[in-house]
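$ run holo --ligand "adenosine-5'-triphosphate" --emit C-alpha cells
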Amino acid sequence: MANPLLEVKGLTVSYGDVRALEDVSLEVEEGSIVALVGSNGAGKSTLLKAIAGLLHPSRGHMLFNAEELGRLSTKHRVDRGIVLVPEGRRLFQTLTVLENLRLGAYLPRARANFDESLERVFGLFPVLKERANGKAGLLSGGEQQMLAIARAVMAHPKLVMIDEASLGLSPILTRTIFELIVALNQQGTTVLMVEQNIHMALNICNRAYVMKTGNIVLSGTGEELLANVDVRKAYMGERGGKL
Ligand SMILES: Nc1ncnc2c1ncn2[C@@H]1O[C@H](COP(=O)(O)OP(=O)(O)OP(=O)(O)O)[C@@H](O)[C@H]1O
Ligand SMILES: [Mg+2]
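-- output --
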C-alpha cells in the first residue's frame, strides 16, 4: 500500500481465556474509508478498542504514521489523531450538545483548534447548531449518533473509528449518517468503520475486511466484496455460502 496511515500486524487479543483476535493484520490507507464487517462476536469492536488503546494485545504491532502505538496510552493516541466513536454513543445525556462537543476537544492540540473544529462540525451537522444549548439526552437517536461523531471530530482526528454507527437507526437515518461519514472523509479524515449494514458499508468504502471468530477471512475493495458470492450468501440473505 502506498501510504498506510494505520498498519495492524499479527494482533492477538484475549479476554482472560477467551481469545477474541488471533493474528489479525490490516492496513488503512490515508484518506480512505475502510469497513470492518462480520458476524456477531467476530472481534470487530475488540479490534477498534485495541487500536484505541483500551485493550492490550498479547502479540502483534500497531503502527500509526509508522509510529509504534503499543506503548502509548489512549490519551496519547487521541493526541496523535486516533479517535473512537464507541458502540452505544456514550454521550453525557444531562449535558448540553455544546458541552459534549467541548469535552471532545479536551486535549491541548484539539483545544487550540476548537473554533475551527466547531465551525466544521456545525457545517456537517447543522441540527447540532440549532440544538447547541439543548440537553444531549433530548436528541433523537439519529441526532445522538451525529453528536457522537461530531464529538470525535472536535478532537481534530486523522483517523475516526466508528463502531456500529447505524445501530438502532431507521434506513433513512442510516443513509443520512452514511452521507455524513462520506462528507467527513471528503474533508480529509480517514475512516475505519464497523458496520452491520454490510451492503451500505461496502457501497461507501474503499476497502473492506471481513472478520469471523477472531480472524480476517477476506478483504478487498467494496466493489469486489459486493460481487463476492460468499459475502452475498453469508451477509446479504442469499442461500448457501462458506463464510
Ligand atoms: N469484556 C469481555 N470479556 C470477555 N469476553 C469478551 C468481552 N468482550 C468481548 N468478548 C468476547 O470477545 C469476542 C469478540 O467480541 P467483540 O465485541 O469484539 O465482537 P464484535 O465483532 O464487535 O461483535 P458484535 O457484532 O456483536 O458487536 C466475543 O466472543 C465476545 O464474547
Ligand atoms: Mg461490536
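-- notes --
The first strand starts at residue 4 and ends at 15.
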